[in-house]
Write a structure and sequence with these properties.
The chain is an alpha+beta fold. The protein is 48% helix and 11% strand. It has 9 helices and 6 strands; from the N terminus they run E-H-E-H-H-H-E-E-H-H-H-H-E-E-H.
Length: 227
């Protein structure tokens, strides 16, 4: 049995419907390769400014209402996700920067790795925030909503607030963005493998992700770089 371990850098935007849909694949990846795969969760600001993103790309397609219809159409293709009927029409965040920096405030602390059911505290917080937005129609760009998600998990929010106040969480998010720029990550979700040499982007099936992982786990030194 191979003793190799594969590192996956997983980029997403918490407001992205495709990342919401893809969570089941990430969970399955962790379940099936729990001892062989580590996942580094990072953020790309697809919806850094909702007004700019939707205003520019959906101006001729109904604006926010048109985009909300698109999200409803996407969610309707998958039985494993829940979507509030008014998602993307009411309580829409100004952007995703605020929620991303909040999650990074947990991610850079040791408490992020605490077990929370089958997930780490970090993974559970990200999932609860996605549910709060897509299913429960909450504006997760608001700090009070973010803190509420953490508190319902029983997390101590004092360290999170300190990292928000001292700028360390924002610096960690800036590192995510710099790394994304270097590896040309422009979409959500994106999986980076093999030190960034392999990139899997978008709504891809689990078997495609699994096949790439299995190939990297092969302990075959003859497959090293030919250059």
């Amino acid at each position: 049995m191979s003793t190799k371990r594969v590192s996956v850098v997983y980029y997403s935007d918490i407001l992205c419907i495709w990342a919401y849909v893809a969570q089941i694949r990430v969970d399955e990846l962790r379940l099936n390769f729990s001892e062989q795969v580590s996942i580094d969760y990072r953020f790309v600001p697809i919806f850094g400014s909702v007004q700019n993103r939707i205003g520019e790309r959906w101006a001729d397609r109904g604006g926010l209402a048109g985009y909300a219809g698109h999200v409803k159409e996407v969610a309707g293709q998958f039985d494993h996700v829940e979507l509030h009927p008014d998602a993307w029409t009411k309580n829409v965040p100004a952007g995703s920067f605020g929620v991303h920096v909040f999650v990074k405030a947990l991610a850079i602390g040791n408490e992020s790795n605490k077990t929370f059911g089958k997930r780490t505290a970090l993974e559970e917080l990200m999932w609860r925030l996605r549910l709060a937005f897509f299913r429960d129609l909450r504006d997760i760009g608001r700090l009070d909503v973010q803190l509420d998600a953490a508190k319902t998990m029983g997390l101590d929010t004092a360290p999170i607030r300190r990292r928000l106040d001292d700028g360390s969480a924002l610096a960690a998010l800036a590192e995510d963005h710099d790394f994304a720029a270097r590896h040309q990550v422009t979409g959500s979700p994106t999986y980076l493998l093999n030190e960034g040499r392999q990139k899997i982007y978008g709504n891809v099936g689990y078997r495609i992700i699994e096949a790439n992982i299995q190939e990297l786990l092969r302990d075959d030194r003859s497959m090293a770089s030919w250059c």
